[in-house]
Amino acid sequence: MNEKQQQRLIQKYARKEDPSKMKGRGGGPRGMMKTGKPKNSKKTIGRLFSYIAGDKWKLVIVFFMVIINTVGGLAGSYLLRPVVNMLTSPGGSVEKLLGYIGIMAAVYASVVISQYLQARIMIEVSQKALEKLRNDLFRKVQKLPVRFYDTNNHGDVMSRFTNDVDAIGEMLNNTIVNLISGTITLVGTLSLMIYTNWILTLVTFALIPVMVFAGQAVAKVSSKYYKAQQTSLGTLNGYVEETVTGQKVVKVFNHEETAVDEFNFLNEDLASRQVKAQFFGGIMGPVMGNISQASYALTSMVGGVLCVLQGFDIGGLTVFVNYSRQFSRPINELSMQMNTIFSALAGAERVFDVMDQQEEEPDKDGALAPPIKGFVRLEDVTFGYNPDKVILKNVSLYAKPGQKIAFVGSTGAGKTTVTNLINRFYDIDSGKITIDDVDIKDIKRDYLRQNVAMVLQDTHLFTGTIKDNIRYGRMDATDEEIIEAAKTASAHSFIMRLEHGYDTVIEGDGANLSQGQRQLLNIARAAISRAPILILDEATSSVDTRTEKHIEHGMDRLMATRTTLVIAHRLSTVRDANAIMVLEHGEIIERGDHDQLLEQKGRYYELYTGKSELS
Amino acid sequence: MKRFFKYVKPYLPFFILGPIMMVCEVAGDVWMPRLMANIINIGAANGDTGYILMTGFEMIGVACFMALTGILGAYFGTKGSVYFARDLRKDVFGKIQQFSFSNIDRFSTGSLVTRLTNDITQVQNLVNMMLRMMFRAPFMLIGALVMAISMNAQLAMILVIVIPILIVVIGIVIYIGFPRFEKMQKKIDALNSNIREALTNVRVIKSFVREDYEEKKFAASNRDLKEAGLNAFRLVIFTMPIMALAINITTLAVVWFGGRQILVGTMQVGELTAFTTYIIQVLISLMMLAMILLQSSRAIASGKRILEVLDEKLDLNDEEAKSKDHVVGSGSIRFEHVSFRYYKESEEKVLNDINVEIPSGTTVGIIGSTGCGKTTLVQMIPRLYDVDEGAVYVDGVNVKDYSLYNLREGVGMVLQKNVLFSGTIEENLLWGNPDASEEEIQSAAMAAQAHDFITATKDGYETDLGQGGVNVSGGQKQRLCIARAMLKKPKILILDDSTSAVDTATEARIREAFADSLKDTTKLIIAQRISSVKDADLILVMDEGQIVGQGTHGELMNTCETYQEIYSSQMDREVSAS
Question: Which residues of chain A are within 8 Å of residue B421 when distances are taken between CB atoms?
């Protein structure tokens, strides 16, 4: 691979789209995520904290447990001193020793119990927080407009659910407790230090600015690289997701080697960023730790001189120096955890990035949910996915319940786009779409969609039983209704031939059903819904014609009471439509029923008689 | 574990130098208090300011040395673990590339992605931690142990009792913990599949307004994951208090037995203080080891999952191919008594005793009802699956005797469920032939009737297709896939229902172009419409895994009942389009 190809590869999967290409409606570009400037870590931390703040009381308990634990630990070792004194004094006896051991045992027991409780509660708090975070993220993603899904790499989005949330989990599990116990130790030791000798305390503090400065410098560099690392991880994930999903095509084209090359490049890229991130994260410990060692040296030195010049007592110095060592321990421990903290923060930013995406526009105040009969009207509808490319121009049409309206025209003429607009997957730019004379923007979106059933060209099934997949169309459908729907879609006979019939488990992307069979299930799913409006987008393209004919009887019954919009390439399947719209370049150029259109001897006539082609 | 050593080997210097640096840092750590003691015992006691200053500078020097070794340690440790993971990832991906279709079917896509990313990260984290901590603990353990025994062997016997107990406890925790972590990774898989489906099926979810249902489904698998996580971590957190308990009991025991010895007069007080310090050091280092081992149980679970991929038996390879250098020349095909089923345990055969002879350069139509085995049949030719019984011959050579590369190079195939990749139209077409010139690309696109719509877009061949080709319509996608396959100039071209979203007239033109530019290529066309196959030299009619009729359109109209049925199902509605 040359350099240009490499650049291109990252560009493809890092999913940084040119904002100018995106449609800015309702403020700012939508549907894509910015990888732009670093955000405020404080704000990120605050948001993360809000996920554990719900368990306030548990955190309070953890806090006290950590205090008991830390203080108990210190007291436990301090207790040795009176024991030793007792042993060396003439009044020492086994009974007294037993008494002290009893006290020590009590202190130790409280330490052990508090330690266990603290860890136990904290793990629950953090796991619960992660669960909530994932749920929130999922709920958010569900609310995002279709545009988001069409423009973002799925693998990268998935990486946010797993790798990034995982990184946050690592931090929640450990860092908070360490933060609390570290702070307690710091404050405790500090007071003891000041109490012992304030001059030496100042000396110890002399290096703190250096520490802060060094810490900040390292943190700044490494947090930048951590962000890069998480981004690279997402990119790699995107590549893996797409390539593994398309693995069969990769095989057919002998493309394995190229795939390996491209993967290796992205892998290499990730590795080089990881080295930087983790190196800078990793030196935080040694740098901070040894600055505090230097401070320890300085303290010993100055202390020693003080002893000589000012008569500071040697015992005091010993104690103080030990404090100074103790003082540096929590600092060391915390800085050792910088790796975890940085990747967690970088992960959190990527998670919140999704959470901050603009959702589908909320329903208008007073949005309606009227009983829908199915009068569909498009008035001068104009729409384009990108502002600079209009797909539909001034499209107007009208459909009544029981009518079948067909769209024909070359691929890319905008037929599928029409279906994207009626249930508001995308909002139109100008014009008006009404159902029963109510603007669809004034109808509650969910209610609107419930009343429009769709069968799409690409089959989308879920992992689960066949029964579950059909029931997806209407959750309260009985088993009998499911069988009825399957019969309508001519799926019943093949389902019965499967080993477990309707309880056969299908994998979302598994190999156990043919494409045609999947389409039949899609139709059954729509058939079971009671929506008065039905959209069929190339619903039977992979179904053989004999089966298709069987479906027709069922479909006729279904369509008798519904408003149906059909898109099909096989003109034969739209011949009996009440009206046929011939679309070209986003405009309706002819309309009428089959006979009228043939009489017109226009475009439809040409298409139908094969004199012209759909390009 | 041994399997992973392969990935350590190339970076052995890092794996050795890293711990050495760490040990140096520990040595400095031990050295510092000694120097400090000198300041007090020698410098301050004697009032020797010069000595104090000198020792102080020496300490600062040691601190600098430690900082250096620490940074170097981080450097080696990071490099070692990152490169380890990189090579592992590379091998796992490479292995997946060798997977056959049935290998892929066995793992789900989501699971493969998790293994490649999340699982490897777990192992990488462990390696990193081991490089930076592992040697510190045993070093400290041994040192303190030696000191303790040399000081008071009798008292040190306490350790002999405590340490084995601890090791057993840790062993038990790992033994129980390991399957729990394994379960947790499985739950991550499940969650991932859930997310994937929600992302790809968004239009269905939104159009049936099932967001709430999906949320509930997700929440359920999310809760499952949380429970599995809690279940695993609960065990892990048990170890810390257990270790603390052990330390404390040992301390108490030392004070009790030691105290009695002092009371009797067989032990000095100073010894007791020092001894407890060493004991604590021993146990702390044990605790560190335990933590590493525990953390590793998650990584081990991940490691096992990675090995599952690496160890997956490739059920389809060309190792035993007899004529690897053979390339597909003429493109004749012969099926001899071919039978096949996807799941070896299922009874119904998907293909049942298929016998067909296809001369080179002919056009063959395959027609039949949904689920009758058409797709399965053609997948036998480029060995996407292997036959269970019988054999498939290309150019009279068993397909198993070709190298996979040569075989697939000679067979172009447009899959029914076809996939375009992120990138521009041109980048996607180049899959067919990476070295194709601009003219070749254009002529392939023209033949596939794609050129016109491509040039009608603003960016032409540079148009970005987006994830999975969301920016083109179904019919356009199919034509791009055909162009991609044509660029390959294969000897055998298989179109698996690849024009279902293309209108009849365009399809006819594509077929004309085939006759033109792929004259010598053997063409197999699976189709639903009689019109698509009517002019074929040979039409195969399939039903329930068997060929129930073969011949030309005219012959079949006279002899084959199924064919007549298909014909009549279409002809009473379809006015001949071409």
Answer: 242-243, 246
